[in-house]
């Protein structure tokens, strides 16, 4: 007769629950898997399948009851690790959407906004177009498979442990978030420069011919020049966007290594030693 103890059952539950929590955290925060158009049942099913594949190769887990306080803290920690890894890739898409926002405002399409179900807010037409292009590039270069490979690798660089992670990884994630503004400006710089030249030319034209209606001819010209520059620069955006994806995946891969490290402890301060000699 085969019998199972409570410890064996807890070990089996923990062996699937803790890796599943990290996987579901990444799937919820990553831009492709965590899209709101993907049903929750599909996300959970994909996470369970990945956990069943990854769980047998995971390093030894801590001997903690999943229903105890220590087990719940491990679940929370694994969820934060997965969310941070997925959020590092979401920053890349946010940078591309930032470039679309800057371009649309410069073109005069700031009023052409739509509801974005991912952010639960408004998004411009150019921003959504560039986000779709970035998604197609993300799939074309197999970055989603590389992201899953980095997730599996994280179980070895940062094993499931009851000890708290080092908080320096969250600072690196915050520093990586600054790339949203710098990269967004760099990607939109050709469009902004072309429209700046167009506005200067329109200013010279209205100065030479004051009878021209600037508002009547300015908007179609800036809109047409903006769309033309986007069409011309779109084939050249593949390389910088691909490099940006590689940087984001590398950041997600190195983040667990940073969390696994501990800051060096300072040596204890030594007491001052009185020099030898007669005391007063």
Automatic annotation (TrEMBL):
Xref: InterPro entries: FliR, T3SS_IM_R
Membrane topology qualifier: Multi-pass membrane protein
GO cellular component, one term: bacterial-type flagellum basal body
TM helices/strands, residue ranges: 12-33, 40-58, 70-93, 129-152, 187-205, 212-238
Compartments reported by the entry: Cell membrane; Bacterial flagellum basal body
NCBIfam families the record matches: fliR (TIGR01400)
Summary of the function given for this chain in its UniProt record: Role in flagellar biosynthesis.
UniProt family annotation: Belongs to the FliR/MopE/SpaR family.
Protein name, entry field: Flagellar biosynthetic protein FliR
Gene of this entry: fliR
């Amino acid at each position: 007769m085969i019998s199972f103890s409570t410890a064996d059952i807890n070990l089996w539950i923990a062996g699937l629950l803790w890796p599943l929590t990290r996987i579901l955290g990444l799937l919820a925060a990553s831009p492709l898997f965590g899209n709101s158009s993907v049903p929750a049942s599909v996300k959970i099913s994909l996470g369970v399948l990945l956990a069943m594949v990854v769980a047998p190769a995971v390093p030894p887990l801590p001997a903690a009851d999943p229903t105890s306080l220590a087990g719940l803290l491990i679940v929370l920690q694994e969820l934060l690790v997965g969310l941070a890894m997925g959020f590092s890739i979401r920053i890349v898409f946010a940078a591309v959407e930032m470039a679309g926002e800057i371009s649309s405002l410069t073109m005069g399409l700031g009023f052409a906004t739509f509801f974005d179900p991912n952010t639960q807010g408004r998004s411009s037409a150019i921003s959504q177009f560039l986000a779709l292009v970035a998604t197609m590039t993300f799939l074309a270069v197999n970055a989603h498979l590389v992201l899953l490979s980095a997730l599996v690798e994280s179980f070895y660089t940062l094993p499931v442990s009851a000890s708290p992670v080092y908080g320096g990884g969250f600072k690196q994630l915050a520093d990586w978030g600054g790339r949203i503004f710098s990269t967004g400006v760099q990607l939109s710089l050709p469009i902004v420069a072309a429209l700046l030249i167009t506005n200067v030319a329109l200013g010279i034209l209205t100065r030479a011919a004051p009878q021209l209606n600037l508002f009547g001819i300015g908007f179609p010209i800036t809109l047409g020049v903006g769309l033309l520059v986007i069409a011309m620069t779109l084939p050249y955006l593949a390389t910088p966007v691909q490099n940006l994806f590689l940087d984001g995946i590398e950041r997600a891969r190195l983040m667990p290594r940073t969390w696994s490290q501990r800051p060096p402890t300072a040596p204890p301060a030594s007491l001052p030693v009185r020099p030898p000699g007669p005391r007063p």
